[in-house]
Amino acid sequence: MQPTNRSSRILLPVKMWFVYLTLFIALFLNYIPTGHLPAVPDFVALVLAFWCVREPLKIGIGAGFAFGLLTDIGVGAALGQHAFSYVLLAYAANELSRRVLWFTPVEQALHVLPLLFMSQVVMVLVRLMAGAEFPGWWMFFGAFVAALLWIPLHYVLLLPQYQPVSRDENRPI
Amino acid sequence: MVGHSPPPFFKRGPAPLAKLVFFVIVSLALLISDLNLRYLDAFRQGLSVLAYPLQMAAATPADFVRNASNYFSSLVRLQIENKELKSRQLQGAERLLRLDQLEQENRHLRALLEARERQPVKSVVAEIMYTAKDPFSRKVILDKGDQAGIAAGQAVVDESGVIGQITRVFPMQSELTLLTDKDQAIPVMIVRSGLRAVLFGSGNGLMELRYLAANADVQPGDKVVTSGLDGVFLAGLPVATVAKVERDQAQTFARIPCLPAAGVEQFSHVLVLGHRENLPPRPPEAEVINKGKGAKGRKAKAGKE
Question: Which chain B residue shows the shortest CA-CA distance from A37?
Fold first, then answer.
């Protein structure tokens, strides 16, 4: 059973503390000093995109901005660099959510990939305009890895919203 | 109750597009004021206190991996290293013994000449914790900060030369910009010819001597040391070795890539040198202009950075 909007499975409403908890866990993963390892996904961008697609009425641009600032501080980037990129990402994810939710997780990942890629491109453009060196193409691989992670994430992040399946004649789904 | 409107059915904030425009403007303003104007260091410090526990927790796995790899490093390698260190210590011991005596003598002579005594520079040993994740710059994080007396602008060296300069200080950590960072510059001198120049990071792990004329007296293999003109770095610290010299007649300046002398991109312990004291007073501005040495102003600027 796929817990998407076209699924026959009804989910419990999301708990906001769980949303923020997952965002902080993603922030923690972003803070792990991997140095200049190639293809490390931007976890905050991924989880933020997930919740912005899933709950467009509850989470969006404001959270993107706040977590962007926290990421900037933690990874030593220019202040506002991640914030700018996440604000755009959150907006786009919010706008796309009505469409994306009708697809299977794999197709959703394909929809999210351009968004994550765009958020990387925005950061590179901003820093290049400020006169930084080009970090190399490997930086963009992170977006592809993140899009792959969307599929497992789709199940993990929705786990608390599943309810026990107990069908009877009064409750057929 | 004039003008009372019924409560809305659905509670909604401002329109998404309005919110987007607002936050985009705010973040662009932040970016500009951070990158160009550097107004936000206090703000960053405040936020960094919030982020610090999470950062420390996140650094633990990296620490663990590093320690584990150390633990499993072969016994043979350690023995070789041990032997090497012992021989180096013996070599150094003789010079150290002489140094004590020389320092005494120097003090006496200086006293005789009534010269100002050179104040010893206070220094702090720190450890490089990890490389900052920002892929656009070359920065590392040290495990000591404000509380250990580290201040922005201090020079950092390891056992074989200059590594970089402290650019940001947090209460518990500090950020060290490596010499190979694109924005980092250091005033230097070429030992063989005494030529003064400015060394810039070129971003790819190398450095570059810029603004040296195409016919300047530089050869591959030349040692480059700090000139101390900036008032930040002590004079005579090894910085780099000239890798090659490309002289193109079409260009005004030679292209001179240099290899860093210190283990700039390696993890190790480093020494954060205190600020130089007892600097001679700056000459008045007009005098500098009369001398017509434009490079001097640039060096001073690079030193302040």
Answer: B133
Distance from the Cα of B169 to chain A's closest Cα (Å) equals: 12
Question: Could you tell me if A160 and A18 are in contact, meaning their C-beta atoms sit under 8 angstroms apart?
Answer: yes
Which CATH number does the domain housing residue B299 bear?
2.40.10.340
B127 with B168, same domain?
yes
**Predicted structure pTM score:** 0.76
Q: Do B43 and A79 touch (CB under 8 A)?
A: yes
8 A C-beta contact, residue A53 and residue A97: yes
Specify whether the CB–CB gap between B276 and B154 falls below 8 A: no
Q: Is B180 in the same domain as B297?
A: yes
**Which uninterrupted H or E stretch holds A135?**
none
Entry field: residues in chain B:
305
Contact flag B51-A30 (C-beta cutoff 8 Å): no
| pLDDT by 10s per residue, chain B, length 305 | 456 777 777 766 788 899 999 999 999 999 888 887 777 777 887 777 778 888 888 878 777 777 777 777 677 888 888 888 888 888 888 888 888 888 888 887 877 776 555 555 678 888 888 888 887 888 888 888 888 888 888 888 887 788 888 888 887 888 888 888 887 888 898 888 888 888 888 877 788 888 888 788 888 888 888 888 877 787 888 888 888 888 877 778 888 888 888 776 666 788 888 776 656 666 676 655 555 444 444 444 444 44
CA A159/CA A57 separation, integer angstroms? 20
Q: Which of A68, A70, A78 sits opposite B35 (nearest CB)?
A: A78
Q: Give, as one character, the DSSP assignment of residue A77.
A: -
Shared domain for B261 and B155, answered yes or no, is yes
H helix runs in chain B, sequence order:
16-32, 41-71, 75-113, 285-291, 294-304
Which residue in the set B28, B51, B137 is minimally distant from A132, CB to CB? B137
Q: Which domain holds residue B244?
A: 119-277+288-305
Give the one of A28, A75, A126 whose C-beta lies nearest to B133's C-beta: A75
Whole-complex ipTM: 0.84
Query: Are residues B294 and B225 part of one domain?
Result: yes
Task: Give the residue on B whose Cα is nearest the Cα of A95.
Answer: B16
> Distances from the Cα of B168 to the Cαs of A27, A95, B48, in angstroms?
22, 39, 11
Contacts of B136 in chain A (CB under 8 A): 77, 127, 132-133, 135
Per the CB < 8 Å rule, is B30 touching A32? no
Q: How far apart are alpha carbons B134 and A76 in whole angstroms?
A: 6
For residue A62, the chain B residues in CB contact (below 8 A) are 19, 23
Cα gap B288→B282, rounded to integer Å: 10
Scored b (16 or more CB within 10 A) or e, A119-143 reads: bbebbbebbeebebbebeeebbebb
